[in-house]
Design a protein that fits this description.
Blueprint (H helix, E strand, L loop, with lengths): L18 E3 L9 E3 L4 E3 L7 H4 L1 E2 L9 E3 L4 E2 L4 E3 L29 H4 L6 E3 L4 E2 L4 E2 L4 E2 L4 E2 L4 E2 L7 E4 L4 E5 L3 H10 L6 H6 L1 H5 L3 H6 L2
Parallel strand pairs: 2-5, 3-6, 4-7, 5-8, 6-9, 7-10, 8-11, 9-12, 10-13, 12-14
Antiparallel strand pairs: 1-3, 14-15
Length: 213
């Protein structure tokens, strides 16, 4: 019985090279991506790490963590903590990066004071085209991020957010159903079980999903 696309493929849909499984494309230890999460870009799909993950510097140590079965549309970007400028003094201009004497007396603590930690994207999250995720944001499982949104705050599981700044527009399901979906966590099932129960996963009957074996 077929078990879906090869999770180790870079191009899981050979006829559409614009779609890539990111886990197999990225070797940066600061970026962790789960199986089957894909990025769709007709021009620069292979350049996700350099074009879509911005200001991600080793010396700051922050990580981008993206779960399994996420769908990331063209141009979605993740702005990491390295984009921050010092805000503890009068000027936000980064004099130190230009050297030539301007680095003298620079206090690294003025940068680290503004760090917001890792950026964490849950499982089964859909991120729309050109959305921007700001540093330190956590997006819950099953959430939907509208196209062109700017997300600066955490997003609850199964919430739909949109706008600049992104605000919650609605919840996809009732709190009770969300709790049951998070308990089921189908994205962690073995691929054989997922394949066998696609109808329940794609459906809207939580009882059927909970009964899936």
């Amino acid at each position: 019985m077929p078990l879906g696309p090869d999770p180790l493929a870079i191009h899981p849909v050979p006829a559409h090279q614009r779609i890539v499984f990111l886990k197999n494309l990225i070797d940066d230890p600061k970026i962790e991506i789960g199986d089957y999460t894909y990025y769709d870009d007709p021009e620069n799909a292979l350049l996700f790490a350099s074009r879509n993950v911005l200001h991600h510097y080793d010396f700051l140590g922050d990580k981008l963590r993206i779960g399994r079965f996420c769908a990331i549309a063209t141009g979605a970007r993740f702005v990491m903590n390295g984009a921050n400028h010092a805000m503890t003094g009068f000027s936000t201009f980064p004099f130190n990066i230009f050297g030539e004497g301007w680095e003298e007396g620079f206090d690294m603590g003025s940068i680290t004071a503004g760090l917001r930690g890792d950026t964490v994207i849950g499982n089964d999250v859909w991120i729309g085209a050109e959305a921007v995720i700001l540093p330190g944001v956590t997006i819950g499982d099953g959430a939907v991020i509208g196209a062109f949104s700017v997300v600066g705050r955490d997003v609850s599981p199964y919430a739909v957010v949109a706008g600049n700044p992104a605000v919650e527009r609605r919840r996809r399901f009732s709190p009770e159903i969300v709790d049951r979906l998070l308990a089921v966590a189908w994205w962690n099932w073995p691929v054989e079980r997922i394949t066998k129960n696609l109808a329940a996963i794609r459906g809207a009957d939580i009882d059927a999903l909970e009964r899936a074996e």
